[in-house]
Amino acid sequence: MAEKKRLLQILDLVKMLPRTNCKECGLPTCMAFATHVLREGTNPDLCPYWKPEDLAFVKQSMKEQGEDSAYPDHLFSARKFVQGKIKDYDFSLVADRIGARLETSADGESYLIINLLEQLYRVGKNEVEAVDGTDHDLWDHVLLYNYIAENGGHEPTGKWVAMESLPGSLAKRKAFVRDCEDKIAAAYTGKPEKLRAALKILKADFTDLDSNAEVAVVFHPLPKIPFQLLFWDADLDDGFPAQVKVLFDETVLDYLDIESLVFLGGKCAERLLNLL
Question: 26: left (phi > 0), else alpha (psi -120 to 50), else beta?
């Protein structure tokens, strides 16, 4: 069987672009332009600074990819839907409610700087960029837009609840266990010190909690959404596997819907596995 050709990625384009953010293409940055070219069909000719051979390569690669894509159509539909929910938001009123920082560009456009798992994102009403310029999953766009759309509510109280006690969580609990808790437990079996080290990178609070777990911490995947993570290592003598339990502040649904919360849990697991 022929090996499937690697799909052209956003960073592949960025490396070929001048990275001067000149805006001659009509977009604010070279990263934004690369994203629009590859994911939304923007004409690459709008940038006048390609090397001819790079432009030819990009056009040929896109032609060969055709309808194939790293992201499914429903992702773009989801992103456009949630973008529509915030199109009339005044970001200056939203920023403090969700723990974001407000920035205003030279042309007066407002952006929110949001910390997602210790990675900063610049979120505008039509575009999301990683502040450090790295490539990222477009599902992150949907998550961040949903976080803005919920617009916060009550401040976290410090009262912890399990997912199964949250309204509407019954159908999603299994997915959260599979994509978050079980993945972390399996990856860090026999490695509680490595888990502590990874959680320190995520700025976890190791203040003593009332728990018999070997690792018990609080960290913030998003500014107003604390997770309490409890880890019990495997007990080989008794045949018990490692276990992870994640608890939420009782206000969590003021900041994300259940489906987005499940996705956030998966992002936490992914980040922790990458830090292993």
Answer: left
Locate the domains of the chain by residue range: 10-65, 73-150, 160-274
Angle, vertex CA 255, rays to CA 108 and CA 127, nearest 5: 35
Kindly report the CA angle at 204 between 199 and 210, in degrees rounded to 5?
Answer: 105
CB contact at 8 A, 245 and 230: yes
What one-letter code names the amino acid at 248? F
Q: Token digits for 65?
A: 């990819």
Query: 160-274 — its CATH code?
Result: 3.30.310
Convert the pLDDT of each residue in 211-236 to its tens digit: 899 999 999 999 999 999 999 999 87
Distances 168 to 108, 144, 161 between C-alpha atoms, Å: 40, 21, 14
Q: Whole-prediction pTM value?
A: 0.75
Q: Per residue in 10-69, pLDDT tens?
A: 888 889 999 999 988 888 888 888 887 877 667 888 899 999 999 999 888 877 665 445
Rounded to whole angstroms, the Cα distance separating 100 from 113 reads 6
- 211 dihedral zone (left: phi>0; alpha: psi -120 to 50; beta): beta
- SS3 assignment, position 244: strand
Which CATH number is associated with domain 10-65? 1.10.15.40
Alpha helix segments (H runs only) across 112-171: 139-150
227 near 215, Cβ under 8 Å? no
With a CB cutoff of 8 Å and minimum separation 6, the contacts of 102 are: 91, 92, 95, 110, 111, 112, 113
